[in-house]
Design brief:
The complex is a heterodimer of chains A (405) and B (427). By secondary structure, chain A is α/β, with parallel strands linked by helices. Chain A is 37% helix and 19% strand. Chain A folds into 2 domains: 232 residues, no CATH class; 88 residues, no CATH class. Chain A is built from 13 helices and 15 strands. In chain A, the strands form 3 sheets. In chain A, strands 1, 2, 3, 6, 7, 8, 10, 13, 14 and 15 form a 10-stranded mixed β-sheet that branches. In chain A, a hairpin with a 2-residue loop joins strand 13 and strand 14. With 427 residues, chain B is an alpha/beta fold. Chain B starts with a helix and ends in a 9-residue tail after the last helix. Classes of the chains: A alpha/beta (405), B alpha/beta (427). Chains A and B meet through helix 8, helix 9 and helix 13 of A and helix 1, helix 8 and helix 9 of B.
Chain lengths: 405, 427
């Protein structure tokens, strides 16, 4: 039992150690109130009448529901990549009527975007703009939404060191930097001639879903500045005009706190076992085998009573029952020995003259016939022969040297 | 250890967890984990029990009783609901009191178990260890521990007293190789010698004194067999029957009777038991009461085991054999392929007795059935005995089935063997 517990603990520990990206920091949680979390956004959306839910373990739990109409999955900050199964689950979720608001400035969501057919590349190089507030890191962005209940509305929002989308933009752009922005490709924090001024895209609508290259516009510290809160709420209103459920995906956040890391590791193992058919099958089989094994070897308390064994029988000779046809040869040898012992002959002496002696000594036709054809005698015949051997009177032949009884 | 209730909890908990995994139901999972947690929480620490056992005596005869007192003390700092059980060998009967007690033993509390056992079967036995079983409050777990308090006692065989045994002093043909005949207590005149201070007056030969006027005393030949070797068959097959009535028990009692009789007559007696490596004992021939103690000690402890035949025992006895040694084999002779060959080697050079407990009769009484197979087996054994007689062995079949062999019958058979022109006895 102790061994089994040790093995389970070791497996869990190894699972946690393997699954957790230890070096990252935690942020962008909808349930904690630090400056870099997004709890203000959650509270404002609650005030708007949306019901709030969350995913703590893995997006694979989205597989548990057949329809996701009027549901919005908000992934703000992707701090670790999705697994193949998780990408499939999100894809299935969208096919079942769900919507997605994805804000990723690290690029971990690119496999998901590829799966969804949104060919976007996230460029994490710093963008600077002459339009900043107090700090060059805080650049102002321009937004415009004209969708659903949100009619032709312009926004000015503040962001913190945003990333941008690269390449061809496959959808409707709604959030950009201003025209004088430039990307600091060499990292010297100054604009060089090789760093042209241009407009960078940070938010687009594609097929009813929203993709942002910068989750920082939603963090608590930014939410209250400029029109960040209005933009955030209006994006959701545009996507869920008739209200609905908002699901914050907390599974992509990474904590530096060891307790949170352990908790998340357990979640990961649980989700892996619960949603992977092979793993689930293995665990179920292992549980059944473990229970059967334990029940097989569990020692229930025995009744302690003194039971003497003085009358317990032990049989050696008398457990074979009656003789059978296969005992014919044994009875024939018995007959020979009966004659040999009666004539006081050694085995060697007897064997030399066995045929002759048996013919002379045996005067019962039945015994003579048995001696010659013992192998055809049936059980009842053998019993009759045995009785005769028992009572046979053996007379020493006249010409035999040695005594006879 | 878990109780039946705990096993049910465990099964239910594990089943709920498994079903929760399959159905992805968190509530079932929580319920299952609660059941499993309940099991874990109810487990607590061990007890510290101390025991001291006193036996009335450590050596008894078969059928006698021993009173046992076992004092138990709880040295731990908490009370506990315990079951105490003093382990008894299965060969003894509990005739008074109980070796089991169920009680709440308080912290530092004491209790005592008093009981009397009857031991109808010879052997070296142990009492204990004391078993302690403690249950938790919910009766989910039980802890068992052994308190290594062991006591020992021996049960000596109660053997019949023989009236005679058909051995006589005789002149050896290997005279030069043997020690001279010794004077001693006996009835046959051996020689006459000068009186020495301290000789009993009744041994003075008054006729010689009247003739020679010198005190002379008669010496009588010591009626001494010189030595006898008893070979007891203790193979596995000798336990056929019941623990109380089997060939080995008959053999052990007969061996004890013969040894006691011969040692009483100031002969030297040796003993060999054979069967397997763990029950092969050799007691070299020696006279006296201490020798009887040695022989009885061996006979007390011998257990049926192994399948080594008479030949192996005879080889072990050879270093102690002289031409005048009488060999006394006690064996049911079943399944021993070596007995005829080995007996043929010694029957001509030694006086050779074969006492064969009637193993078939013993078994038949236990089995309660008699078939044609039994006829065949008995006939086979009869032929072996007849063949041994043809070598010159004196054979007797000893009836079995009783705790003690029938003394009168044994004495009768021995009397028959004692006849000058003995008629070999076939049962």
């Amino acid at each position: 039992m102790i061994g089994a517990v040790t093995v389970v603990v070791l497996l869990v520990s190894v699972g946690i150690a393997n699954l957790w990206p230890w070096s990252m920091e935690r942020q962008l949680s909808a349930y904690t109130g630090h400056w870099n979390d997004i709890s203000f956004m959650r509270l404002d959306l609650e005030k708007e009448g949306y019901s709030i839910d969350n995913i703590m373990s893995s997006p694979r739990v989205l597989d548990t529901q057949d329809r996701w109409d009027r549901s919005l999955l908000i992934v703000a900050g992707v701090e670790r990549p999705y697994t193949k199964d998780e990408i499939t689950s999100i894809s299935n979720y969208l096919e079942r009527g769900g919507k997605l608001l994805l804000a990723d400035d690290r690029g971990y969501s690119e496999p998901l975007l590829k799966q969804l057919g949104v060919l976007l590349t996230i460029n994490t190089t710093r963008v600077y703009s002459p339009s900043y507030l107090k700090n060059p890191d805080f650049i102002e962005l321009s937004g415009y939404i004209d969708s659903g209940p949100v009619f032709s509305t312009d926004y000015t929002v503040l962001s913190d060191k945003p990333a941008t989308f690269d390449g061809a933009i496959p959808g409707t752009i709604f959030l950009t930097t201003d025209n004088d922005s430039w990307m600091d490709t060499n990292g010297n924090k100054e604009r060089d001639l090789s760093e042209p001024l241009k407009t960078y895209v940070l938010g687009i609508f594609v097929s009813g879903n929203t993709y942002l290259s910068d989750p920082s516009i939603f963090i608590n510290d930014m939410w209250v500045r400029d029109q960040n809160a209005k933009l955030g709420v209006d994006i959701v209103r545009a996507m869920l005009p008739y209200g609905g459920k908002i699901i914050f995906d907390e599974s992509r956040h990474v904590s530096t706190d060891s307790a949170h890391r352990a908790q998340k590791g357990v979640y990961d193992i649980f989700i892996f076992v619960a949603f992977d058919n092979y793993a689930r099958g293995v665990v179920v089989a292992a549980c059944i085998i473990a229970v059967l094994f334990y029940l097989r070897y569990v020692r229930l308390p025995t009744d302690w009573r003194h039971l003497p064994n003085l009358d317990e029988p032990y049989l050696v000779n008398y457990q074979e029952g009656a003789i059978s046809q296969s005992d014919g040869l044994r009875i024939r040898i018995l007959l020979e020995n009966r004659v040999r012992v009666a004539l006081r002959l050694s085995s060697k002496e007897f064997n030399l003259r066995k045929r002759d002696l048996m013919a002379k000594v045996l005067d019962d036709p039945d015994l003579i016939r048995f001696y010659r054809s013992w192998d055809i005698y049936k059980k009842e015949d053998l019993e009759r022969v045995l009785d005769k051997i028992k009572d046979i009177e053996i007379t020493c032949p006249a010409n035999l040297d040695g005594g006879a009884s | 250890m878990l109780t039946l209730k705990a096993v049910a909890f465990l099964s239910a908990g594990a089943l709920l967890v498994v079903v929760a995994f399959m159905a992805l139901d968190l509530q079932l999972m929580v319920l299952g984990l609660m059941l499993l947690s309940f099991l874990a929480v109810s487990k607590v620490m061990k007890l510290n029990i101390e025991a001291d056992r006193k036996l009335e005596t450590e050596r008894i005869l078969e059928g006698e009783r021993i009173k046992v007192v076992l004092k138990v003390r709880n040295r731990s700092s908490r009370e506990a609901f315990v079951i105490l059980y003093d382990e008894l060998p299965p060969e003894v009967r509990l005739v008074r009191g109980s070796n089991r007690q169920v009680l709440v033993l308080e912290a530092g509390g004491r209790t005592r178990l008093e009981y009397t056992i009857e031991a109808p079967l010879r052997g070296h036995y142990t009492l204990g260890p004391l078993k302690v079983r403690r249950r938790d409050f919910f009766n989910l777990h039980f802890e068992e521990e052994l308190v290594e308090e062991i006591s020992y006692f021996s049960v000596y065989p109660r053997f019949p007293e023989l009236e005679k045994f058909p051995v006589r002093s005789y002149q050896s043909s290997y005279f030069e190789m043997m020690p001279l005949h010794l004077t001693g207590l006996g009835y046959e005149f051996f020689c006459i010698r000068d009186y020495i201070k301290g000789d009993p007056l009744k041994r003075i030969n008054w006729k010689v004194y009247a003739r020679t006027r010198e005190l002379m005393v008669n010496e009588y030949e010591k009626e001494n067999l010189n030595d006898a070797f008893i070979l007891v068959d203790a193979r596995e097959v000798t336990k056929a029957g019941t623990p109380l009535a089997n060939s080995l028990e008959v053999g052990v009692k007969l061996a004890a009777s013969v040894a006691a009789f011969l040692l009483k007559g100031r002969n030297q007696v040796g003993l060999i038991t054979y069967g397997g490596p763990d029950n092969a004992y050799v007691v070299p021939p020696a006279p006296g009461k201490n020798q009887l103690d040695s022989i009885l000690s061996v006979l007390v402890g011998v257990k049926p085991q192994g399948d080594e035949g008479f030949k192996v025992a005879l080889d072990k006895a050879r270093p102690y054999l002289t031409p005048r040694t009488t060999l006394i084999l006690i064996s049911p002779l079943d399944f021993d392929e070596t007995v005829v060959t080995a007996a043929k080697e010694v029957a001509n050079s030694h006086r050779f007795f074969v006492f064969s407990p009637n193993s078939h009769e013993i078994e038949r009484e236990v089995a309660g059935a008699f078939t044609s197979k039994h006829t065949m087996l008995e006939l086979e054994k009869r032929l072996v005995l007849e063949e041994l007689q043809s070598f010159g062995a004196l054979t007797a079949t000893i009836p079995g089935g009783e705790v003690l062999p029938d003394v009168a019958l044994i004495n009768a058979k021995l009397s028959e063997l004692s006849q000058p022109n003995f008629k070999r006895v076939i049962a």
